[in-house]
Design a protein that fits this description.
Number of domains: 2
Order of helices and strands: HHEHEHEHEHEHHEHEHEHEHEHEEHEHE
Strand order of the largest sheet: 3-4-2-5-6-1-7
Shape: globular
Distance between the termini: 52 Å
Helix content: 25-40%
CATH superfamily of the largest domain: P-loop containing nucleotide triphosphate hydrolases
CATH class of the largest domain: Alpha Beta
Length: 378
Amino acid sequence: MSFVKLNLHPSLLANISSLGYETPTLIQAKIIPVVIEGRDLLGIAKTGSGKTASFVLPILNQLLTIAVGDRNRQPKVLVLVPTRELAVQVADVFKALSHQLPRSVKSMAVYGGVSINPQMKAIIGVDILIATPGRLLDLQRSNAVDLSKVERLVLDEADKMLNLGFQEEMQEIFKLLPKKRQNMLFSATLSDQLSGINRVLLSDPVVIEIEDNVDEVQLINLSGYFVSSERKGPLLRHLIKEQNMRQVLVFTSSGFKADQVAGKLHKNGIQALSIHGKKSQSARLGALDRFKSGQLQVLVATDLISRGIDINELPYVINYELPRSPKDFVHRVGRTGRAKSEGLAITFVTRDETRHFKVILKKMKRYIDMIDSETLDF
């Protein structure tokens, strides 16, 4: 199928072509017509499947049919995301696909960690607002934004948006929105929590779930090492140096551990930085830009921050610590093995984590021959 068959505006088709995209991904082919039709939607597809463009394109297409309104503080589209990094990433997609449209479409990302005053000034005339919940409420309480005219609501990474950490903020935001609107929820996995919010938030929704392509899943090579906690650091450094790894994304369970691991790597001559919620916005975006461009050898991240790390050909993911849930493990390893390029996901497992790791692998329907790190000389 070509993008032409999706009934998109010619100017959008020109932008798609200029960015080098020839055919829509499976999720784009299924979701774009549903969004254009105005239906509520629950879209389930793994990270890297193209789901951001699957809502960006039809939203822009819809806005092109609406006359330019007054310059006010009433966005027509609200996209809620869990992290600053993801807000920037989604905004970049909107801007790339908004180039030279017949009418000006203004999009903007707002998030915490930076001064609110420039955001308050720039929000005038915004059609599409991409926001983290906390900063959005700060702007609303300061009368910098009015959500009463929102026509389309998107929850990206909805599984994270609806967990306990965001629950109160999300309920407050929902009360500020008009009852009549189009709702779109997107997630990499379908949880019981999402099924429940589906019944409350969505009206007669279309549910589209894209199963993992077997060929793409097989592009992710899984490897595992049994290793004691005290030997994880030496093993990590040994693997990076021995295999001359570049662009290595390392996952830890906390910001403290991320700082600790990155610091040890740096002391041992390996270029590494950490990225987590307690870092300043400039530090986080700076580290992410350096990593994406290949200037930084290793980025050590927590699970929440990883939602904003989108690299087509990331060669290595290392689970320094196991996540709590199989879903988070899938998110992690799904960062590699994209764009038909093979990737390697390595997991460190202590002996007392063996049972938990077996549960994760069972969920993925994969098997790993584990290596005992005690047999390695490092």
